[in-house]
User: Fold this.
Amino acid sequence: MSEQIDAAGIFHASDGPPSLSAVCRHWVDRAIARIEADYNRTADTHLIPVEMPALPGIALYLKDESSHPTGSLKHRLARSLFLYALCNGWIGEGTTIVEASSGSTAVSEAYFARMLSLPFVAVVPRSTAPEKIAAIEFYGGRCHFVDAPCDAYAESERLAAELGGHYMDQFTYAERATDWRGNNNIAESIFAQMAREPHPVPRWVVCGAGTGGTSATIGRFVRYNRHATGVCVADPEASIFHRHWQDRSVLTQEGPGSRIEGIGRQRVEPSFIPEVVDRMIAVPDAVSIAAARVVSRRLGRRCGGSTGTNIWACAVLASEMAARGEAGSIVSILCDHGDRYASSYFDDEWLSASGFDIAPYERRLEAFFETGRLPAA
Assistant:
């Protein structure tokens, strides 16, 4: 490659390839245009009020992310991750995409990979719901199984290197792939949809943490816009995140992991930003499943286990607000559709075999909706 400086003092390099060939740039341009066109065809997700007649001064809403084309909150993340990787020059025509996932992110990434005619491999635990496995395969993805969720990271790196592909790594890039200032992210959408409600600025926004990307986006957004809103993360009891939030030196969690797919981890993920979280509520798995069933009956449709985790935290917060005589609104997320868990959380035989007794928690949450108070155990 030859180098020269012209009369104006401008450096030029010639006889060498550019960082992206014209052909590659053309493919990337078309890929981004296809993703943006898909987004333009997709209406925003609904904000659903949940009736709580016993608490007339407190309003509860669920952001229904199950209405995305791939059925979950992770559709937003997958779109952002693909755009981020494309604009960083990490993905080109024919690149094999590899992702570590508990299921839902892989479903959504398989959708976008198929849109761009890219091979896709999902590295998932063997315990992943069969309905999610079927959805990944429906979109043309291939599942590569690991025995333990913590094995998925290294195995994804190994596979991507072996295949000459790109490891998407949602756990690292979730918090930076989304523009937290706005640009139609979930936080901006929530606050826009709340504008005409009696309490338009929520007292609390409640979400879970799988990568930590959603809590980071919402936490940064409310601070940037100076909203008087607290961000609460509802975390499975077996997860590391709430322990790390209490003590930053705690980075891993030993023992069995949570059975609630999509949230809770055994290690602190790079995308989890504890400084933008105002409160964390730890929720046992049996409670999450019970709450998913209760809210499913009240909405007339099935919701996944992570939605149940959120609902329990909302009940705790609403009970506390009522006890203090506070009025206001709470917004949480309906993360995915419960039909993905027909063979697990909504199967009585699976519950029995897994050792879950959810009846006491169902009674407590039903009592909350009837009386406005969450009874003690």
Summary: The chain has a mean pLDDT of 93. Residues 22-41 form the longest helix (20 residues).
